[in-house]
Amino acid sequence: MSDASPAPAAADPDDCIVGIDLGTTNSLIARVGPGGPEVLRDEQDDPIVPSVVALVDGRFVVGRAARALAIDHPDATAYSIKRLMGRSPSDLTEAERRSLPYEVVASERDLVRLRIGGREMGPEQLSALILGELKRRAERRLGRPVTRAVITVPAYFDDAQRRATRVAGKLAGLDVVRIVNEPTAAALAYGLDRTRSGCVAIYDLGGGTFDVSVLEIRDGIFRVRSTSGDTQLGGDDFDRRLMERLLARLPAGATADPSLLQAARQAAEQAKIELSTRETVSYAVVDERSGLRLEETITRGEFEALIAPEVERTLACCRRALADARIPSADLRAVVLVGGSTRVPFVRRRVEEFFGRRPYTGVDPELVVALGAAVQADILRGGTRDLLLLDVIPLSLGIETYGGAVAKILMRNSAIPARAADTFTTHVANQTAIVVHVVQGERELVRDCRSLGRFKLAGLPPLPAGMVRMDVEFLVDENGVLTVHARERFTGIEAAIEVVPSYGLTDAEVARMVDESFRCARDDFEAHQRIDLENECRTIIAATGRILAEGAHGLDRAALDEIDAAVAAVTAAFATAGVKELKPAYDRLVAATVPLAGLVMSDVARRTIAGRTVEQVLAEPAAPRAGGSSPAGAAPAASAASRVVTIRGRGASPAAAADEECGDLGGGFRAAPAPRKEASSMTLDWHSAEEIGIRLHEKFPDVDPLTVRFTDLHRHVCSLEGFQGDPKKSNEKLLEAIQMAWLDEHQSGG
Amino acid sequence: MRMSAETTTAPVCRQCARPLVNPQRCAGCGTFQPADPRRDHFATLALPRRFDVDEALLERRLVQFGRELHPDRAAADGCQRTLAVLGAAQLNEAYGVLKDPYRRGEYLLRLEGGRSAAEDKAVPDGFLEAMLEEREEVEEALAAGGEAPAAVERRLERKLEALGAELSLGFRELAGAGDRASRLDRLRRTLNEMAYHRGQLREMREAAHRREGA
After folding, report:
1. Do the interacting molecules here have an ipTM over 0.85?
2. Does the predicted TM-score (pTM) go above 0.80?
3. Boundaries of domain holding B16
């Protein structure tokens, strides 16, 4: 192929990926058809599905019909669901709670649930109903199943909010192939005329969220320079201000019931819309219970004063985005308005004053995000070839350090894919494990940031504080999947996790995880405890056996008998299932072996710390010693599970010090490195790549693997003694693997 | 051993032997090139290794190479995608360093064998007094509000620009005859000073944002 950037495959016309704008107020679905991007409308030519769900008589109603039911069934209708995605009840402000006519309750894991129509449901489940409605609309329109989608989210959504959006897609039967930021999607739709290059600012004020992004467009590449925003700021807040003004007319002591709240909200929204074209508007509601009529008249000027604080907050975000992008507003080519709330004249005027230019409103601000999502879907499908999106991470990523502070590793607005690394050390002597706690956010303290996950780098040898050198590397891929990798330089001990389940795992796995964490939290905990206990017991028994065999322990007969009895009790307890039975036996064993702890410690420390990796130490046969060695003389090889046993704070016990010894007592052997294969059995596959690399190094010590050409590499591989197979038919990636193995050998061998 | 950009031989594709512009992927045959520990950030963007960077060229290279390496364009096949992700991450990292004069200076000083900020915290003569004055100025501006913080911000930016020019000169002199070690130390001091002003600037912007956001 002569194309420098080979595409996945020729686009299959039947293989459609839809683009979905899942909004706070309204949702839309679009695709790229033969005539370009288009929003899919219903039979009445309506492009919009209001993001409202009602549960009436045990039946779910979505969209306009649900909206119509809202006043009569306020407690059975959910709207502004997006505001609750991925949040905890404790995140909600008092004002937010007050303005919601439905009840918000906490789930077991402190996630928001809504009580509507007598049922408790998560925002993901309710959003899934809206997505399902959109999916059915698209299927009716296109006459075929729709299973894959790009869904947009506010650029400033944090990880939990993105995860919730993915889960909603999964629940609706959609494979979410990408989550795209709304302003970026909008830029893709606007930028279809891309003959001109330059920077644009996208000002996106929706029903419940605000985003601003600065993008550079050049040669069909859309590069996000910076993004900022507020996920809890939108047109809903304008409605709320108007509603509060109306409800302030209630007699002292009277409170609004859900039905009145709902009616007041709709009256407020209507008044807001009318204020866009009229100077003075009256709006009113009637309280059904008391027959009381509440009425309010407001001028446009009063309304503008009412919403000015919110609008100023959006402009503060714009200032930050421009500063982060290092672009003065005079250098922008255009300012683009997105989102229904940008219809408010005051918003337009303030944006114009701030940026010093008239904003561009050429495409319907309500449709543009869905159209852009469809364009990105088409890029991923391989249909649109001349556009490309280079996005950024909206929030900084870092890890927790001593005292609950955050060390940022990847700064916000870093282009993705992104990679960065930093080095950390320990603060406590003899710390045998380091917990890596990954967090997201701009704040300095962990408690103010969002926690993404934790993992443990365990099995470190006891060292003085500050001696450990842990390199932590963050890698974020094009989907925003964060992988964190930690490695201790001294010992070579490594650990890694894919931190962001929303992106890194399939939706099925996310759903299963969510489900499991509810049901199995307790069982998991006990099972884990038991495994840990059993491993610790095996470790102690192994270490004790070796020390006793050496003879120089100085214990009396009674003490030795007690150790024997304790070992027998533990071994018997292994046969039973629970932690309950094992724990007393374990305690007895620990007590009986306490006099040996010091001996084990010094022995292990001597063997481990000599600048070698634990793996190297483990791979060696036990050092010969007087009086025999460990049972059967097997080469000690620790199982992976056994090393997890070492927990912070146990550094002085025989278990922690000697956990490397347990392999020979069974319970998950890890095979020692396989002996080198005979030459005659060598063929070309992934398993032999390393082997071939080593041979190449032996045979061609003077050829540099970094500069060797693939054609020469082919020849060299073929010339190896005993080689079978045809490298010419092989994947070039395989050759690369051989080359890398060769390089490793080259460097380690000098 | 130090290598100047001029003596580095142009890399060629491991697959088709054509000269490479983007060192990470051949524009001719699309082959991803193996990772090379000797490839620095300058090489990643096919720029000469020196402090003075042609910004327009830097931008063009980012866009051109980014297009070639972007995972959305790579085959769905697992290892092609992995290589694309790693390649694009490396490209983005290199761009982030070279775009910013301070980070570029730190990086180049390390390549040239200079000491890190952790090893040498020295600052230019008279800097400490100036620093105290600046601190006061920043605090006053933040307290005063209005146009004052913006004016201080601009002053800090100009200061950083001037120090950037100093770095540029310092790195050019490095190639000439004379005491290399003391020149490296002088660059170290300039960078330490820059680090301080950058911190001040960031603090001011964060404070301004917090105030507006509240």
Report:
1. no
2. no
3. 5-99
